Amino acid sequence: MDFKKIFTNNEEWVQEKLSLDPDYFNKLSKSQNPEILYIGCSDSRVTAEDLMGAKPGEIFIHRNIANMVISIDLNVMSVINYAIYHLNVKHIIICGHYECGGVRAALQSKDLGILNPWLRNIRDVYRIHKQELSLIADENSKFKRLVELNVQEQCVNLIKTASVQKAHKSRGLLVHGWVFDIYSGKIIDLNLDFTKILESIMEIYRIDE
């Protein structure tokens, strides 16, 4: 993208929107009311609105390297809290994608500086599922499977939180795990069983009122 053209592109975009609806930006300035929180990867090739066909105001979005939900990351935890208690979202989606640079980096035995503590969380996913992953001989297939397992574990991390447990109990909030297939453009629903995951972790992570 030509950096110098950004403001020109913006002007063209504004005129396009106004030609379709002269009141577009007045409507856009009103309060948002999304039903979905989307937690995705920062990868420049994966844009939530485009792949879901969503319009502005329909999805509340948080993105970070490898779509992580880490309990001591105040950024993602603040987003989750705001989405649940102030926007009253009905669904939270964690969406990974094949060819994820963060997951690939975690597979390498390299010192990556400040990225080390972040990627260690993905390496922990590998450790948890080492038995399954060690049986996959093809490296690309192993890489893709780790992407899927990382989404699964981030959903588990999400379900561990008090705000998610309370919202699920009080109003049926649901958590979904997806993978964007960058080879085909399609969304793959991992069909994670929210209730089963919740039951499996309740003994340790249960949060009562």
Polypeptide structure, described:
The chain has 209 residues and is of the alpha/beta class. It contains 10 helices and 5 strands; from the N terminus they run ααβαβαβαααααββα. The protein has helices spanning 6-20, 24-28, 48-52, 74-85, 101-106, 116-128, 130-133, 139-160, 162-171, 194-205, and strands spanning 36-41, 59-64, 91-97, 174-181, 186-189. A hairpin with a 4-residue loop joins strand 4 and strand 5 (186-189).
The main β sheet shows up as:
5 strands, mixed
Fourth-tier CATH superfamily name of the largest domain: Carbonic anhydrase
**Do you know the CATH topology of the largest domain?**
Beta-carbonic Anhydrase, Chain A
Measured distance between first and last alpha carbons: 50 Å
**How many separate domains?**
2
Low-pLDDT segments, ≥5 res: none
Radius of gyration: 19 Å
Q: Give the C-level CATH assignment of the largest domain.
A: Alpha Beta
Shape: globular
Strand order of the largest sheet: 2-1-3-4-5
Q: Output mean pLDDT.
A: 93
